[in-house]
Amino acid sequence: MKSSPDSLYRMIDVNGNRASEGLRVVEDICRLSLESEPLSRNFKKLRHQVTGVFQKLEAEGIKPWKSRDSENDIGADRASGTGGIKSSLEDLIRSNCRRGEEALRVLEESFQALNLRNAAAQCATIRFSLYTLETQSLSLCPRSRWKEVHFYVITDAGIASPRSLSEVAQKTISGGAQALQFRDPNLSWKDKFKTGKELRKITWDAGIPFIVNDRPDLALALEADGLHLGQDDFPVKEARTLMGQDAIIGKSTHTLAQAIKALQEPLDYISVGPIYKTTSKPDAWDPVGLPLLSQVRLKSNIPITAIGGITIENLEIVIQSGTDTIAVISAVMSADDIKKVTQKFIKAIERALKERGKQ
Ligand code: TZP
Ligand code: MG
Q1: Rounded to the nearest whole angstrom, what is the distance from the C-alpha of residue 184 to the centroid of ligand 2?
Q2: Class of domain 4-140
Q3: Environment class of residue 4 by beta-carbon count within 10 Å: exposed (0-12), middle (13-18) or buried (19+)?
Q4: Tens-digit pLDDT profile for residues 31-43
Q5: Ligand 1 centre from 184 Cα, in Å?
Q6: What is the pTM of this model?
């Protein structure tokens, strides 16, 4: 057994490295995966603040690294980085922030024990900044960002004709569409790839989620952000395995039993519909109406998308019935002025959500 203060300096040395490593991982995720310049800059700033604490100590003649004794560290074999393979960006951010926060807490306590009050206070400040940055970076992850999608536009080349889907997508995005689903059962595979690639580029440039209907193979080939599945499509569990932990996956439901079953699956949203009669899906179920939406709202802890016959005129009651997102095909695809109609939808949705929030 080692006696203080040498053992405390060993703890300080180990945890200084641990804090910097955790911060470095999240800094790189923010830079390379989430592509957030401000967040990666702020994580870097925190990492430099940790280094700063040690530089200041060193200037005062305190050198924790001199107590380093890695060969005799009885925990060295078990030191396994973040604790195993992490499968999603969110998991990686959470575990590395946690690592940084815990290390900073140990530093704080150790500095206190050595009566190094300034260093202890600096570590506490860095730890609190890290909690804030953790929340901010998690909110940028693709699956978390779905919670901000309230207006979801779905394509139909037939209804959009003679305009191309790319033209229609550009226009609805310029009006504020918050997610785009590529759904076109009637296109040939050649056209699915051609058009899909164009839509992927447009949505990528706009920074909104691009979801592919039915087919995980097409979604993967187009590097889509997610997949929308019907009741008779690919099973969700297998789709999640193929698409990975960062993909957004949604599923259509038409009855309460289907919705309850879907809520057990690894989904990011469920859609409920058709709310009203629709002409955009020839094999659509009979309208399920608003009562089903209200019932699903009571059961669901994930976002709900309402679909089928929704217009600017009837959306308020649909939102009052509990949906988080309004999805449309024809209201946008058939509009003469797509940008203007989209702007009207966004305004009406924002107003209705605000009203609902007041109740
Ligand atoms: N699923 C249920 S209704 C529907 C789908 C894909 C079509 C909705 O289209 P519209 O034109 O908004 O009624
Ligand atoms: Mg389908």
Answers
A1: 10
A2: mainly alpha
A3: exposed
A4: 999 989 999 999 9
A5: 12
A6: 0.84
